[in-house]
Batch of 4 targets.
Target 1
Amino acid sequence: MKGVLEVRQTIQRPVTDMPENKIDLIAYKRLFLRVADHYSKGTFVIDERNKAIVYSLFLYFLKQPGSLDIRKGLWLAGPVGTGKSTLMYIFSRFMQTLQRGFRVYVCSRITTEYAMHGDLSRYLDNAGWSSLGPVDMCFDEFGREPIPAKYFGNELNVMQHIFHIRYSYWQQYGLRTYVTTNLYPNDVERKYGDYIRDRRGEMFNLIELNGESRR
């Protein structure tokens, strides 16, 4: 990570929540590319298929004006292998270098955790995990988790429940949620109900990644 640290040290002004805060984008681009290269071990490529989305996400996470609404979360949808998860893990690492990171959680692991312990507080109010309260986070592979999960006979559609609560936090506090999924809108309604489907456009920037698999 030496190269990442060297580039980070050249950035003087912090990122704030104010979109009008102008920053040195060139320095941040260098840092992002170093982080992406380090995380992917050199396999991450920006090309004609993804460069517009990568740049939109880059501006979004730095709170700069662009095509995405920084008040909303992110909903990245598309076929398997189009790079949705990779993008979110890279941006997670990138923002961590700026002390503004978020974690990525795999939905199937969350449901397994619920079945074992019956506790979802980490993904909701963060009680017992951090004094910061609810935090931005990413849910990876939404729709691939088992439904329902069962804890001592109590069945729960875990991700539906989490989204219900985080929607109210988004309304009250502007809490952002990020999602990667292979589901189409009709699949979302079938698995989670029309409540979740109808609130996607309200709560999220909807982004589609299409094309051939990068795997």
Target 2
Amino acid sequence: MGIYSGHLYRDDQEFLNLVQDSFLSQHVLEATRGETVLDIVLSSQKEFVDNVKICEPLGCSDHNQIHFIIKVKGERNRKIRNRKKIHKGRYKDMMEYLAKIDWNKTLKNKTATECWNILKSEIDCVVDKFVPLKKQGNGQRRNTYRRKPLEKSSTSK
């Protein structure tokens, strides 16, 4: 992504940093023009994009087509949803777990993208392991803005 003749330009590096800092997932993993990945599909969660296929160019284009499915929900899911209790995470255990990984060996001879994907995968795994889930109800929201009933204000003149 953003690599031309082996050089990473300033704007490309800024874009790459933005993608990584935003924890976006790149779904196009095959070349889309010649031997280079020039066309990308990004999402905030891997589950949002599915079935990515690189197809032949359309018409006179020198870029391959990218076909993919975007998963969206048309109506609200009323099932119990699980969310992370971030404030209850066992962060000391996380650090110890990550410190046991031989990062030099794990990331040796890998590209920057491969290193990022490995790191992101390990972090996701650690969060799943050390941050408990909070079960939420069946889609009903409670009113967090009004905890007490409104009182009728009376003004005397």
Target 3
Amino acid sequence: MTTAPQNPITRAIWDGTLPIKFSLDATEAAALGAKTIIEPYFAEAPRCSYFPLLTSQIRKYFVDMALNFIGDDAEIWYDVDGTPLKWHYPIGLLFDLHTGYRPDSNSPPPLPWPVTVHFKNFPADKLIRAQEIDATQDFFMSMIKEADFLRNGSTKKVMNLSKNDQTQLWDGLWSSILYYDFSHFIYVSDSIRCSVYKF
């Protein structure tokens, strides 16, 4: 199969990051045992990644700050201005949707992006509960199948991926949190996109 030439736009999208300010919900802080104001957690998150991939480090930060939380990561959720964030959307897409930011506008984007972290009162009527990283991976692969169907009229390319290729596609995304491993992701991504490119 012929793969596409390396596209600098694809690489720029992959390398895109967002500075995010994660603040604990003020009403939950006292209920979770916080004796003082807990400082926000700041992170530079890849735009192509997902919140569940950051949740364990966010949880660790707030628990290390003397937060009395004994639940699991599935109980943690995020909002912006009172609107729950859908964890199964990429972080960059959520930023664009919730800030209304357009690159061609004259106003700068709201950075760091203020996101509220919740450890209680999961809005099950508004969000799908993210169980584990494996569930996030399954959801991601389902979205890849949907995209393949929209692009090619079938899911054949994705369904023909070996388990190793599926793992490599996910590992490229997962490792982007730590290493920005574009090569892991693009190798498999190129194999499921159309092999004929029109410019």
Target 4
Amino acid sequence: MKMGSDIEKLRCCGNFLESSKPYFAMISLQFGYAGMNIITKVSLNHGMSHYVLVVYRHAFATAVIAPFAFFFERKAQPRINFKIFMQIFFLALLGSVSVPFN
């Protein structure tokens, strides 16, 4: 009888953790934003250029996110042929042209 109640408690705890994942993700994201704001404030107060800070922030984000994209998404993407390459090219061209107008 005790073993059945232990399994029921584990199942209940597992359901709670599964349903709480979005909340934990948002709390983690808020901690990340707070850390980024603190690091930005400290580095700018010590005289770092705004441009250098943007480059470092993008380089760090790329280094953190790129392995996830490489390992988890590499089989889900289609092969790049000439048509897809031209679509990417024109979207990038139009995106860089429309930035000053926003």
